[in-house]
Amino acid sequence: MPFLAPLVFVFLWSGAFIAVRAGIPDVSPIAFLAARFSLAALILLLVTFIAGSFGGWREMGRLWPHLVISGILINGAYLSAAYWAMQDISAATMALIGSLQPLMTAFLSGPLLGDRFRPWQWVGFALGTTGVAIVAGLNIFDFGNVEGVLWGIGSSVCFVTGTLYYARFGKTSALLTTNCVQLAAASAFCWIVALGLEDIHVTVTPAVIWSFLYLTFGVSLGGMGIYLFMLKSGTAGKVTANFYVTPGLTAILGWLILGETLPLNALAGFALAMAGLWLVHGRRV
Predict the structure, then answer these.
(1) Residue 47: enclosing H or E segment and its boundaries?
(2) Which pLDDT score is estimated for 285?
(3) Is the pTM of this model over 0.85?
């Protein structure tokens, strides 16, 4: 599991960008998030009862408020802000802003969680960030859209804060119940936002159905479950470093699945990000 978890996670998370591109044009994005989180939470609740995992609920005790807060930050606020950001900036620029998440997490996890990184690991963080920049490219005109950039930065701040908060206060809770509570909290948050701020619409198409099913089962249940598992067993900085390879892998999947162009800079940046990830995880090259 320690070896397979990051590999499966990056494939599932990279596939999420493909699913979003396919389905979001036909549905209100925040309502889409709310429905996805609701279904995932209900499935997990049912699974805990079928599996007889009542101990996880009993052992939660006073942890549930921490899981609610981290769930809203990691799932609801993070993705809502990201979708709002991409109303004004490109997905590539959003990926570039998001590449700061592992670096921010690593810097803050020292004083907050007691994590320590060696010099070559910091080199790895730098290489990973550079790799994402090469994959995404730099569109200076996007950075003129101040509102979009601020939403993008806010999205990353929410994810980093939620990750550190969970790692500090909530990771002793059982995995199934943790993901269930976090997704339920994110669902409630997104429904409030959608009903209050969004003109909800949906056009049921095969792309919407496929996107909804993949994002629910593959990402909310599979990807987030693996992410929480990795946080329970590893340092926050190392875990978030896995995000370095998702933009490059997304470009490759877009080429394979959607027939998009695969530029050479995406392959070069992906290779550099992989080298950075290798260093972050403590391997000397």
Answers:
(1) helix 29-50
(2) 44
(3) yes
